[in-house]
Amino acid sequence: MDFANSNKALKRMTEYFAEQMRINLGAKVKRKSYRSKWKNGKPYNIIVKSFRGAHSSTGNLINSIRVIKSNIGYAVTMADYGKYVNGGRKKGKGIPVATMNRWVRQKNFKPRNLKTGAFIQNTASATKTTGFLMNRKIKNFGIEAYPFIKTSRETTMYVFKEEFKRETKKDIINNLGVKFKIKK
């Protein structure tokens, strides 16, 4: 059996889905920022602020999204850490220290002197300290999930539902040589 129309529609649908994932990751959305003071390793005087920001720091996740041909059609692949962006991170779990330190170096944070507010030299120890403080915050507050896969899937299904039905109907008619009425 030949499903040429369905396969073309499926390919267009998969490419659209991948593009929606890229768009959603780059879009500025409402996010939360947690600020607190710390005493004996525990947060107190917690302030939660909302801001608008993208979920893309370097663009690596956006650039890693690819459409590939698979045995059953087409699939979308991306960097492994996409699952953490999509699902977030629960309270109580930190990030591996080496990964956090690498990310802090990559972002090139400029540490400040807490008493004077002046920038201090960005040394290896300052990078480790920044990584530790951020990891402690993640352990206590977690990382908010951003379900960009679900949003992209819902948009894609809305846009392509009728087209996919129509193309599949054409394939069925072409393969069986009989007209079927598809109930809506």
On the 0 to 100 scale, the average pLDDT is 86
Strand order of the largest sheet: 1-2
Helix percent band: 40-55%
What sort of overall outline do the alpha carbons produce when their principal axes are compared?
Answer: elongated
Q: Spell the H/E element sequence.
A: HEEHEEHHHH
Number of domains: 2
Largest sheet: 2 strands, antiparallel
3D architecture notes:
- There is one protein chain.
- The protein folds into two domains: 1-88 and 144-184, no CATH class; 91-142, no CATH class.
- The chain is built from six helices and four strands; from the N terminus they run αββαββαααα.
- The chain has helices spanning 4-26, 60-64, 82-87, 97-107, 124-141, 148-176; strands at residues 29-39, 42-53, 66-70, 73-77.
- It has a two-stranded antiparallel sheet.
- Strand 1 (29-39) and strand 2 (42-53) form a beta hairpin.
- Helix 1 (4-26) packs antiparallel against helix 6 and helix 4 (97-107) crosses helix 5.
- It is elongated and about 80 Å long.
List the helices and strands and how they pair.
Blueprint: H1 4-26, E1 29-39, E2 42-53, H2 60-64, E3 66-70, E4 73-77, H3 82-87, H4 97-107, H5 124-141, H6 148-176
Antiparallel strand pairs: 1-2, 3-4
Helix pairs in contact: 1-6, 4-5
